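Supplementary Note 3. Input sequence used for the single-chain structure prediction.
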Amino acid sequence: MLIFAIKPGHDGGIAAIEDGRLLFSLESEKDSFPRYTELTAATVLQAAELCDRLPDLVAIGGWFRRDSLEHRIGAGYRGQEIQQSVRRFFGKDIRFFSSSHERSHLMMALGMAPQSDHPLRSVLVWEGFTGSFYLVDQAGRIVHEAPVLDQPGVRYASPFSLADPSYPDDSVLQRFSDAGKLMALAAYGDAESTDPELHAVLDRLMAPEAVLPLAKSSFRGSPIHNAGVRSQACTTLAALISKRIFDTFTKVAERQLPAGTPLYISGGCGLNCDWNGLWRQSDHFSQVFVPPCTNDSGSAIGTGIDALFHNSGEQRIDWDVYSGLAFDDDAKPSSERWHQREVDLPELSRRLADGAVLAWVQGRCEIGPRALGNRSLLAEPYRARTRDRLNQIKLREDYRPIAPCCRIEDVGRFFDGNFADPHMLYFRTALDDRLGAVIHVDGTARVQTVAPTDNQPLYALLSAFADRTGAGVLCNTSLNFNGYGFINRMSDLAEYCEARGVEEMVVGDRWFSRVDKEDAR
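The predicted structure, written as discrete structure tokens, is reproduced below.
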């Protein structure tokens, strides 16, 4: 059975699942479309090109119209409703399926998680609107639902827009890009602060009635209002709300979920590496799993898994994190500006050690928002100025940390928590302060571990870099124009590197170096 699953709304995309195996997941923002973009015609055509026949079933993720959860697309945003029908599709009668957006997260976590023999599984869905635990049995039945907090993602991100003077007073507190920035700023704050004025703001943001639309203007007179995102008020409130939200969910988990169950996490809050690490440290759960596409980038996959479950009884799929688009060789870099040769890893490692920044492209692109060595900017990890240069190249704020990728056998030397994390979803404490480019202000790093079976080309490069410098560690950040999804074609790649001063590009086994390097720098 071939299933086409579609995610409407922001973070639009299409996933194809055939006989329990993920064929591809195409996110419309990838290939240099704007971040969080809705489903595009280009994505639909790319999906059609990748399949040699019409699907047997089309699955539509539930969503809403006209900015209201009451005006539904398909099964809508919340709830457990399932819709099935037969419709005409290009002259063929095929099955249509729809389940809620809430279920897309639930089924994504269940269907992508490793096999567990435990009779019950705990699933946490926390994102912009939904914040609930679900206890699910081996048959896929929800045996208990524990609502915790509406809109945890919106509440968490709100201090950023409150403090940002450029965010209009007549706007409501919801901007997709704020949560990741606030996660970086929270490391600068004091989660134990007792400042009464900030606690009053915190209490208001966490009150049950504090839901959208909540206007920024209603916070005039508070210490956070237009204080600046780097202000002590903002960073402290960021740390306070992070702790309060996590503590709120922890109390419900300990009270309503049986100890010893595995915990599967889905929703945009699953990108918060601090929270993921705290869940992993919890004694309440036997293990923790977070999909690499835990936010809405994986919702099409989740709806496809739900359709598979309701039509075959199967709950799990086989998948690979590199299931996105193949790279498009649509142009040849100018020979006047680029010199081409075959990849020489020892020489490339020497260039990296000397301070070069490398655009590294291999195979199909990653699913989810994290660059994991197929659409990455790589650089040496030792000098703090390398972090600053990467943020300048990416046009990002200087307080944003740069993540490292690290050979699995080197993790225990440089970071605590000697466990595999191939999808870059947990914080660890750095054990070696020489890695100045990848250590955040609080001494942590969001590490991608790399084994030969995870990503062999990246592992080989890390090994060559270890032979030269003694550490199989590199800076790894996403290869994208600011505000856009991953670069996925040669014309965009060359344009980006020339505009942003990136000296080296590797695409597969081809290595391109700037002829006019001095000008590029």
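The mean pLDDT is 95. Residues 384 and 436 are 5 Å apart (CA to CA).
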